[in-house]
Amino acid sequence: MLQAEEGKAGGFAAMPDANITKIALANSLKKLMTKKSFNKLSVRDIVDECGLTRQSFYYHFKDKYDLMNWIYYTETTRFMTSYDSLENWTDGLKDLCCYMQQNKTFYTNALNTTGQNSFPEYLNTYIRDIAISAIENSPPPEKYDRDKWEFFVSFFATAFVAFLIRWANEGMKEDPAEFIEKIRSFFDGSVLHELEDQIQKSSGKEITKMTKKEKD
Q: In the CATH hierarchy, which fold is given to the domain comprising 5-71?
């Protein structure tokens, strides 16, 4: 029976069409990561745990990093859809943190594995994209200085991932809802404040132009 790490929260149960060999390899890696750190595991360890061959592994994945990437991408995508407004964009993050908390060992390892296509890099891109989408779906985006607010969003995404890693390394003890509320407050107080300031400045310029035209 396919289970999430530590027997919690569904794991791959929501993936009926997933290749069964990939799932077996993924469950093997997650089980092994409850005993060893990811960096100390080999492909041989993974296939021996689930009774498959190295040939089977390399048919599906390039290396153990590719397998880890497949796991977190497959498991977390469902938390990262349909949240694209300033009102609800943190809802998916809260659900994601709850899931990571239930699968703590694997995701603590994943968050501390760096490099191209790593989980922190994936999260950074996701946070940046969802924040931009939320802003673009909130009126009036045409009044924003895009280059400026994209910088603030990128800074926020980097800060969020850093705080998430710290949260994980401290044992994910803080309640996800409280943790995400702090993140949202930071976003509202920095990025949104900057956007509102831009709108006010833009409105002030428009009023000045209109007043000048009336005088002329």
A: Tetracycline Repressor; domain 2 (1.10.357)
